[in-house]
Amino acid sequence: MRTRAAVALEAGKPLEIMEVELDAPKKGEVLIEIKATGLCHTDAFTLSGADPEGLFPSILGHEGAGVVIEVGEGVTTLKPGDHVIPLYTPECRECPSCRSGKTNLCTAIRNTQGQGLMPDGTTRFHMLDGTPIYHYMGCSTFANHTVMPEIALAKVREDAPFEKICYIGCGVTTGIGAVINTAGVEIGSTAAVFGLGGIGLNVIQGLRMAGADMIIGVDLNDDKAEMAKKFGMTHFVNPSKIEGSVVQEIVNLTKKGDDQIGGVDYSFDATGNVKVMRDALECSHRGWGVSVIIGVAPAGAEISTRPFQLVTGRVWKGTAFGGAKGRTDVPKFVDWYMDGKIEIDPMITHELALEEINHGFDLMHEGKSIRAVVKY
Ligand code: NAD
Ligand code: AHE
Ligand code: ZN
User: Fold this and answer.
1) Given this structure, which CATH class describes domain 175-319?
2) Ligand 1: does its nearest atom lie under 6 Å from the Cβ of 50?
3) Which residues form the Enoyl reductase (ER) domain (predicted)?
4) What is the pLDDT of residues 327-351, one digit of tens each?
5) 365 is an active site residue
6) Which end of the chain is more exposed for a tag (fewer CB within 10 A), N or C?
7) Binding site membership of 320 for ligand 2 (Cβ less than 6 Å)
8) Domain 2-169+344-375: assigned CATH number
């Protein structure tokens, strides 16, 4: 069939809207009509050329929601008409990682996914002249239709609006999951969140749900503070507008009573900047502070700190998709949204047509959007 897509032809160039060919789903695969997709900073990161796994030409996008149109041979858990959220972290429930119960990082199809291919080693997308187009994170939601493995689709309730729940496909789950699954934040905790964008705001929302007392937001853009306050931020620090270091500022903010050491119980990097990751670790409390890396850093970037920071009890962790097991947890996030337990609507600051997708990335780079969503 033919479908419309925003194609990344080359690194650093705007996406091009064009008709592409999409093959029918093969064994274990499902054809989806994508109804809406969010624009995550990771899409911009890959388009920039900084992603070691970035491939071109490809169809980016990994934060979608849609409807099953057709299922391939052997598909048993989905049928045409089902509403689904694509999962860049699948859940096969059979691989050693899934069986371990210790991680959400299913390994069933990770190798081919990283090569922009379906599990059989080929692509379903082609240019009209037959040139293969790579898949992206196994999802490619910047196409009106896509083909995905059954194990990478979460079936969700049918009364949930696509243009809102697409955000659960990455940002919402990553941010809230980082707090609940990865950090395991307790009631009364203190926390610092670096980067108050589409991920950081969801970390803040997760911290409020977990019952954190002090939630310090850090961003270079003052405009991000207003929305963060609405989601539960109690203190704001703009590192470019303080006298000393951001680490010292946070340590001072958290000194209380006879605890004059200071530092937060939990910190989160949602910027992708390795210097910020270091600050996030070093502003966490001696003896027990836990710092979670969420941000994705460019090819070649490395983190560093004095080992003494870890010797003295701080823990450095990372999280992918908030530690969530997609087919199990994503339908629950959709229920939480529909039941009013989590908020999504205020964070979707822009709704665009596919033709306007490059404008959506401009808004992201200018710091003017939280989430822009393309509605097909
Ligand atoms: P975003 O662009 O919406 O937000 C980033 C925020 O960080 C912005 O508000 C920006 O002003 C702020 N910022 C940038 N540099 C800063 C600095 N030096 N100090 C303080 N603030 C700074 O991006 P997003 O969609 O929220 O994504 C955030 C990061 O999370 C990206 O690196 C993205 O690739 C990554 N990510 C990771 C996962 C995962 O599973 N680990 C999932 C989604 C996104
Ligand atoms: N391809 C990059 C890494 C990108 C990355 O870390 N992706 C996150 C999700 S970001 C979503 O917005 C992730 O889930 N990683 C786990 C995985 O298996 O990819 C690189 O550096 O090679
Ligand atoms: Zn993402």
Assistant:
1) alpha beta
2) no
3) 12-374
4) 999 999 999 999 999 999 999 999 9
5) no
6) N
7) yes
8) 3.90.180.10
